[in-house]
Automatic annotation (TrEMBL):
<feature type="signal peptide">
    <location>
        <begin position="1"/>
        <end position="29"/>
    </location>
</feature>
<feature type="active site" description="Nucleophile">
    <location>
        <position position="360"/>
    </location>
</feature>
<dbReference type="Pfam" id="PF03734">
    <property type="entry name" value="YkuD"/>
</dbReference>
<feature type="region of interest" description="Disordered">
    <location>
        <begin position="100"/>
        <end position="145"/>
    </location>
</feature>
<dbReference type="Pfam" id="PF17964">
    <property type="entry name" value="Big_10"/>
</dbReference>
<feature type="region of interest" description="Disordered">
    <location>
        <begin position="33"/>
        <end position="75"/>
    </location>
</feature>
<dbReference type="InterPro" id="IPR041280">
    <property type="entry name" value="Big_10"/>
</dbReference>
<keyword id="KW-0961">Cell wall biogenesis/degradation</keyword>
<comment type="pathway">
    <text>Cell wall biogenesis; peptidoglycan biosynthesis.</text>
</comment>
<feature type="compositionally biased region" description="Basic and acidic residues">
    <location>
        <begin position="133"/>
        <end position="142"/>
    </location>
</feature>
<protein>
    <recommendedName>
        <fullName>L,D-TPase catalytic domain-containing protein</fullName>
    </recommendedName>
</protein>
<dbReference type="GO" id="GO:0018104">
    <property type="term" value="P:peptidoglycan-protein cross-linking"/>
</dbReference>
<dbReference type="GO" id="GO:0071555">
    <property type="term" value="P:cell wall organization"/>
</dbReference>
<keyword id="KW-0449">Lipoprotein</keyword>
<dbReference type="GO" id="GO:0005576">
    <property type="term" value="C:extracellular region"/>
</dbReference>
<dbReference type="InterPro" id="IPR050979">
    <property type="entry name" value="LD-transpeptidase"/>
</dbReference>
<feature type="domain" description="L,D-TPase catalytic">
    <location>
        <begin position="256"/>
        <end position="392"/>
    </location>
</feature>
Length: 423
């Protein structure tokens, strides 16, 4: 009998040790004794007494890890976290199964939670191991393994202007999504643009992939604009969720609006309400007129190549009617190829007297873009992304609002009508 009691004692100690690492959840009935009732008959302790003793040694700390094990579409920003009740976290380790790298994270000052320090990668499997102790120093552990959402099942928005940039008063916030959005109201309601000027900002959907946001009138000069994308977990369409959580701030510089009069062949540059320069120009020829309307400078190139074939100007052999590899001081006004740029190949006499281009606005310049005394160089050096160039008196239609960043050519009621959330 003595031998049987000693054997049972060893088994009991093993059960207590096992219970101490089960995060406070006991499943001893499945892994307890051999069910031999002779133990109790022989004077040993019953199974219920063993369970009770083990329970007293189990930790009060209860760890919860999200996402749950097996999740396959976890978000990459806010979905991942570890919390504990009845104790404090002592360690959390998160590892990428793809390359074994450790994900940096931080335990809160009160020891009650943990989260990654930065954004996770898409389509990546991660493993989390967490440990905690209760007030009596008893340890609990928990594990989870999950996979983040794939590019095929997520969407992002590529936006302009860039964080920290300074732009002109005409610069809208333009977001191009990499997948078409059908739940436009849900997506737009998680995008907010505010200005230190207090101007009301409304978004307009040009299609399922593009959302532009602007105030009724140009931004106030010297204001600050903030874009907040809170799209993590927001569903753009069935099974496609957002992954972005970002705040972008940019500054609006001075107000500069330059008006090109295609008939008079001049451009008047007005900064902060004052005329600072009048420049002779050469706009589109009678056969290739320049668009009318308000156009926003979206790109600047000290030199760039312009080939007519890329915008539909070809000869009988299919080659471009022009191919100039070093156009100086070029600034884009439309997606379709309208620029305001320097021109060194035309006679100096055309500026202010003839419209000769294929639709662009030309300014007198020199080859190499190194002469700061030319009209083309002056305008380039005194312009910023987001400045407005208005063309009038051309024998052409008004540029389409979505051809470049040119939504200013749509009146306010039309603009608001394209919002999924209203004004």
């Amino acid at each position: 009998m003595e031998k049987r009691v000693m054997t049972y004692g060893k088994r009991r100690r093993g059960l207590v040790a096992a219970a101490a690492v089960l995060s406070g959840v006991l499943t001893l009935a499945a892994c307890g004794g051999d069910g031999d009732s002779s133990d109790s008959k022989g004077g040993g302790k019953g199974q219920s007494q063993v369970d009770e003793a083990a329970a007293k040694d189990a930790s009060d700390a209860q760890i919860k890890i999200t996402p749950k094990t097996g999740a396959t579409d976890a978000g990459i920003n806010r979905d991942t976290k570890v919390t504990v009740s009845g104790g404090k976290l002592t360690s959390v380790t998160m590892v990428s199964k793809a390359d074994g790298s450790t994900v940096a994270g931080s335990i809160s000052s009160d020891g009650k939670s943990w989260k990654p320090d930065g954004q996770l990668e898409r389509s990546t499997q991660y493993k989390i191991s967490a440990s905690a102790k209760d007030s009596d120093g008893r340890k609990a552990t928990e594990h989870s393994s999950f996979t983040t959402v794939s590019p095929a099942n997520s969407f992002i928005g590529n936006f302009t202007p860039e964080d920290g940039s300074t732009v002109g008063v005409g610069m809208p916030v333009s977001i191009n999504f990499d997948k078409a959005v059908t739940n436009k109201k849900d997506v737009q309601s998680h995008i907010k643009v505010t200005s230190s000027s207090g101007q009301e900002v409304v978004g307009h959907w040009f299609n399922g992939n593009r959302l532009d946001l602007r105030p009724k009138d140009y931004w106030k000069a010297n204001s600050t604009v903030t874009l907040k994308l809170d799209l993590d977990g927001v569903e753009a369409s069935s099974g496609v969720k957002g992954v972005q959580e970002k705040t972008v701030t940019f500054k609006v510089g001075h107000s500069q609006v330059s008006t090109v009069d295609a008939k008079a062949k001049t451009m008047k540059v007005v900064r902060d309400g004052k005329l600072i320069k009048t420049i002779p120009i050469s706009a589109g020829s009678p056969d290739n007129t320049t668009y009318n309307g308000q156009m926003v400078i979206s790109e600047k190139f000290k030199e760039t190549r312009m080939n007519g074939a890329t915008v539909g100007f070809t000869d009988d052999d299919g080659k471009g009617e022009y191919d100039i590899k070093d156009v100086p001081h070029a600034m884009r006004l439309s997606t379709s190829g309208t620029f305001i740029h320097g021109n060194y190949w035309g006679a100096k006499s055309i500026f202010g007297s003839q419209n000769t281009s294929h639709g662009c606005v030309g300014l007198s310049d020199t080859k190499g873009a190194n002469d700061p005394n030319t009209e083309g160089a002056w305008f380039y050096n005194n312009s910023q992304i987001g400045d407005v160039v208005v063309v009038k008196n051309s024998n052409d239609k008004t540029v389409a609002p979505d051809n470049g960043l040119n939504g200013w050519n749509m009146d306010w009621s039309q603009w608001v009508a394209g919002s999924a959330t209203g004004a």
